[in-house]
Amino acid sequence: SQELEQSPQSLIVQEGKNLTINCTSSKTLYGLYWYKQKYGEGLIFLMMLQKGGEEKSHEKITAKLDEKKQQSSLHITASQPSHAGIYLCGADINGQNFVFGPGTRLSVLP
Amino acid sequence: NAGVMQNPRHLVRRRGQEARLRCSPMKGHSHVYWYRQLPEEGLKFMVYLQKENIIDESGMPKERFSAEFPKEGPSILRIQQVVRGDSAAYFCASSPPAKNIQYFGAGTRLSVL
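^ Those are the sequences you sent over. The predicted structure of the assembly is below.
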């Protein structure tokens, strides 16, 4: 079973709509990282969260880590076609090696 | 400041040949990670190295795969006697101290014929 679960698996939204992607673990996360991957390319770092209850924003993207440090959400406001791609959460679980979620594939229709 | 450089971007090998994938970390980064991404699957951790040391190779297949990060030069992921199942995208990431933000290269796409 996956150590990190992501939902939804894929998402299609109309340009301008808001959306949320979730990342969940059954274990405490020692650092939660969000990355974006365009098809056929490498991963681009978006944000890192380390403290329970932490929230960070960059442009139209906001990421939160819950108080128990087992769930994170990524929220995009007023989505644009440039937001399309695969969003992956990654985490250092229990101080062991880094793991990634399966990814959420986002399509934004103009 | 150049990012993580991987080469080649695409590599084609016939079954039984060897594949060598290179990764040059970002300047100032002494930690390198290798991941494999199979078609329609997520990223899977393979190995974590520091200069001249393998720190964690728990994700590496026991046979045919090896990795090194010498004192001088890039990190190398070596796959001997490749099979069709080795076809995948291989990504390298680097970070300054351990357990910090990992910055990824563009990947090497290996195709085994």
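Residues 48 and 75 of chain B are 11 Å apart (CA to CA). Chain B has a mean pLDDT of 92.

Shout if you want it in another format.
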